[in-house]
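Recap from last week: sequence in, structure out.
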Amino acid sequence: MLRDDPLQPGDDEPSEQPDDPDQPIWQRHRPPIWYQPRVLLAVLIVVVFVGAVALAARHGTWPPKAQCGTPKITGSVGHVKKGNPVYWAATGRTAEYAVTFGATSARVVGGTVQPVGSESMADGKAFVVRQPATLSGCRYIGHFAMPFPTGEYHLRLFRIDGSTVTQVASARVDSDG
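Predicted structure tokens:
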């Protein structure tokens, strides 16, 4: 049915405006609930909280706290691209330790540690990250640039007692090439 004045609502159609025509239009219009500022603020707070919890659960504390008990070596990340830094930390009781990367074992020659054998992907290029030194405060921390192509490698912590070298811990570090 056509009306003469389209601006005047017909009796059979519901009014788009509330009952009180004295209110300004901005007070009569109510946005959907998800557009209201309180709801948007609450959603934003929940998203930030969930994100913070997820990140905290994913990333451990770096560097690890000094632990004077069982020797341990850890890397800050599990995957590193070639040329990027590999951060590591060794903890343990006071003794002399050396750290290697890509070596299967080590030996002492003239007071310095030399790698013996290389992991398959290291292709004979294993190296000593830290020469024998006493842990100060039950921990030392270091870093080096990832030298190897894509593959699985290990940081190895060796206790040095005179000319005896004993592996006491290792940590896996993957190169993403």
